[in-house]
Amino acid sequence: MPNNHRKRYTVLAIDDDAWTRNILRSTLREFADINFLDAKDPEHALTAVEREKPDIVYLDINLGGDQDGIALLKQLRQAAPEIFIVMVTAHGTAENLKKAMELGIGGFVVKPFTGEKIAATLKKFESVSAKQ
How far is the C-alpha of 124 from the C-alpha of 99, rounded, in Å? Predict the structure, then answer.
């Protein structure tokens, strides 16, 4: 149930897997009042960022096929450096984490994720945004 006493956030989930996007949507709605957007590929993601200016992005590091989450992360950083980005992956490697951290991610969640892990990323976002 949305919390009407908190700021409403716009959240974009970028993942090639519709099931993961749906789980993220339902999980996020348990913890915050959100306007949820989703994208299955870099093209749709960049369009959503340009049009909707999300506060938080959950980005799959492995988008499937020849699509690379790290390459998209670089594009997102250029297009909207202020966005709080959380990398999501089923195959977290130290190399991917290092690259993502160098590009200034706000968090990293490994699939399968729990509600508590998603809530922790929201709490971190709120902490960072309160300092700005």
Answer: 20
Tokens of 99: 């690259």
Helix, strand and coil content of the chain, in percent to the nearest 5, comes to: 45, 20, 30
Q: What are the tens digits of pLDDT across the range 46-56?
A: 999 999 999 99
Rounded to 5 degrees, what angle do the CA atoms 18, 24, 25 make?
Answer: 90
Q: pLDDT-derived band of residue 19, with 50, 70 and 90 as boundaries?
A: very high
DSSP assignment of 68-126? BHHHHHHHHHHH-TT-EEEEEESS--HHHHHHHHHTT-SEEEESSP-HHHHHHHHHHHH
Question: What structural domains and CATH numbers belong to the chain?
Answer: 9-131 (3.40.50.2300)
pLDDT digits (tens, 9 = 90+) for 88-117: 988 767 888 888 999 999 999 988 899 999
- Type of residue at 92: G
Q: Which residue has the tokens 């945004």?
A: 129
